[in-house]
Structures are given as structure tokens and as C-alpha cells.
Amino acid sequence: AFENSKIEYISAKGVNSIGSYCFSYCTNLAYEYLPNAKRIYDYAFQSCGLLTDFSFRESVESLSLGCLRNTGLSSAEFPNVISQKSAFDSTPITKASLPKIKNLIGGFNNCYYLSEVEIPNVFWIEDAPFAHCYSLTEQLDFSSVRPILPARPNSSMISYLIRCSISYIRI
């Protein structure tokens, strides 16, 4: 659609999903108004670094692979998201609140400034969601988590969590 274009502004109140790569690498995109979007597909806003906030925070339920990667997003507070896959990788977020997430598949790799996480209902963790989150030092309670799957063969989630400087992990 608009991938790699010089678009600066989007306003589409009636849109309920954003397709894969739709606005990826739109480096001039500074504002979007898509308040009714429920699904954001793979890499939809990847590398739109001028985007620091999203109007669909309240409406969105699904964030697909890398859809917000390398944006300027400073806070990942999405109260109605029920699924995401590495959606926030390499963003400057400091806080993540995903109260309805049950499966945390990737999510926050290379979020160097992430220091606060609220994911109270997660019970499945996969693909090292906090790899290289060096500012994440708070205590995380993963006692409700069932399997913790490694991101790569011969690695464990614990080793990824330790790289984040997390001081306490309850399993």
C-alpha cells in the first residue's frame, strides 16, 4: 500500500485492520488516526520512527509480528490486546501494560529502556520476550506460567531474563 512512501499523516476512522507492511519504512509518518483498528498485521508500522503514540490503543486486540518495531513508541499500554507476537521489539518504551495477554510470544526484545511491566494474566512465555531489556530490574512474578520455551536450541528463558538485570524471578 504505502510502504516506503513519503506519507506524513493518516486519518481513516472506519478502518478496522492494517495490512502487513502497509506503512513500513514510512520515515516521514508522524501522525496516524485509526481509532477503530482492531488488528495490526505483520510489520505494518515497522521503522516509522516519528510515530510516538497510536490512536488505536483502546480498540486494538491483535498485534502481529513486528508491527510496531522500530517506532518511537514510549509506552506499550494496550488494555484490550489479547494477542501479540514480538510487536514492540526495538522500541524506546519504558512501560508495558498488557492486562489481557495470556501468551507472551516475544514482545520486547531490544527495548533497552523498558523498566516497568504489567502482564498479570500471562501463562505461556516463548521466544525470550525480554532479551536485552537492560533497564528491566523489577521483580517479575511468573508463577502462573506453564511452559517456558527457549528461543533457540540449547538456551533457556532464565538466561535471557538474567541478561535483563532482573533481580528476582518467581517460577
Strand order of the largest sheet: 2-4-5-7
Measured on Cα atoms, how large is the radius of gyration?
Answer: 16 Å
Main sheet attributes: strand count, strand direction, barrel closure: 4 strands, parallel
User: How many DSSP helices?
Assistant: 1
| Number of E-type strands | 13
Mind explaining what this structure looks like?
- With 171 residues, the chain is mainly beta.
- It has one helix at 157-163, and strands at 9-11, 17-18, 31-33, 39-40, 62-63, 75-77, 83-84, 95-97, 103-105, 116-118, 124-126, 140-141, 169-170.
- The strands form 5 sheets. A 4-stranded parallel β-sheet has the order 2-4-5-7, with no helix packed on it.
- The longest helix has 7 residues, at 157-163.
Ordered list of secondary-structure elements with their pairings:
Elements: E1 9-11, E2 17-18, E3 31-33, E4 39-40, E5 62-63, E6 75-77, E7 83-84, E8 95-97, E9 103-105, E10 116-118, E11 124-126, E12 140-141, H1 157-163, E13 169-170
Parallel strand pairs: 1-3, 2-4, 4-5, 5-7, 6-8, 8-10, 9-11, 12-13
